Amino acid sequence: MCDYTGLMGKRRAPPVRKRHARRDLSEPTGKAPGPGAFLDSLQSQGRYTFTRAEAARALGLSDAAIKNAFWRLARARRLATPRRGFYVIVPPEHRALGCLPAPWFIHDLMAYLGRPYYVGLLTAAALHGAAHQAPQEFQVVTDQPLPLVEIGRLRLRFVKKAHLADTPTQPVRTPTGDMRVSTPEATAFDLVRYPQHAGSLSNVATVLAELAERLDGVALVRVAEAEGEVAYAQRLGHLLELVRRPEPARSLAEWVAARATRIVPLTPGRPMTGAPRDSRWRLAVNDDVEPDEGVG
Questions:
Q1: CB–CB of 67/55 below 8 Å?
Q2: What is the pLDDT of residues 64-104, one digit of tens each?
Q3: Domain boundary among 79, 100, 121
Q4: Whole-angstrom distance, CA of residue 217 vs CA of residue 45
Q5: Are 138 and 205 in the same domain?
């Protein structure tokens, strides 16, 4: 019988395995910056957006590693992703919102998507001083349908419009550069064109009453000429006079009188039979428009 005691000798404690801390991919590692340091570097340059391709070049990590690191940063509310492959850095003062305010990144986002755009409708009206009620979403007009973006408390709504290039815009300064915004006159026409994105036609009238101070009659005619849609000019003129802001509508009335060949409804799709007529604007008033109290 073999004696194994000599082979065993004294019992040795099993080797203790060293536990290696899981690598935090959001921190720098030496040769290339970690994702966290990459964000800090961009922010120190006044930049708040980047693409996945840009991050891959700078970090030298695999796509899976980048995805994992950015997921951790997003959980820590340091990063937001309004579109796949496009990232927004969120500094501490904006983390309660869940994202940077849209003006900080909208120009970069639309450049990334390769789409023309302008900030319009209620958002543009508020930027021009017609802020009777704060817009509940940031509205962007572009040439293709794009899905709603919801990040934290931010809602980014896209509205499709044909012939986008015909709409007059102006640059508005933001903390990170400029963004394109429809002029006050183009904003007025868009509000009439898309009342469903302004709450209702009654709300459109309320906003127009405040926006009227920024409207120039000659500029209104230029927008009407550029967009070539007489019916919207008829509706806009009627609403401006409804809220007792006739001054900017005077030049538009002359333009409409020379071009309006038929009576159009105030609200398309509703019957005109029996509706009162506004002869000045050749309009069938087939809807009840009730601006907020104190307007008109």
A1: no
A2: 899 899 999 999 999 999 999 999 999 999 999 999 999 99
A3: 100
A4: 43
A5: yes
**144 and 76 in a common domain:** no
Which residues sit opposite 154 in a β-bridge? 151
Same structural domain for residues 116 and 213? yes
Are residues 140 and 173 located together in one domain of the fold?
yes
Domain count of the fold of the chain? 2
Rounded to 5°, angle at Cα 155 from 149 and 157: 65
pTM for the model: 0.85
**In angstroms, rounded to a whole number, what is the distance separating the alpha carbons of residues 254 and 284?**
19
- φ, ψ dihedrals at 232, nearest 5°: -70, -35
> Whole domain around residue 225: which residue ranges?
101-284
- One domain, residues 108 and 202: yes
Q: What is the pLDDT of residues 214-239, one digit of tens each?
A: 999 999 999 999 988 899 999 999 99
CB-based burial of residue 113 (10 Å sphere; 0-12 exposed, 13-18 middle, 19+ buried)? middle
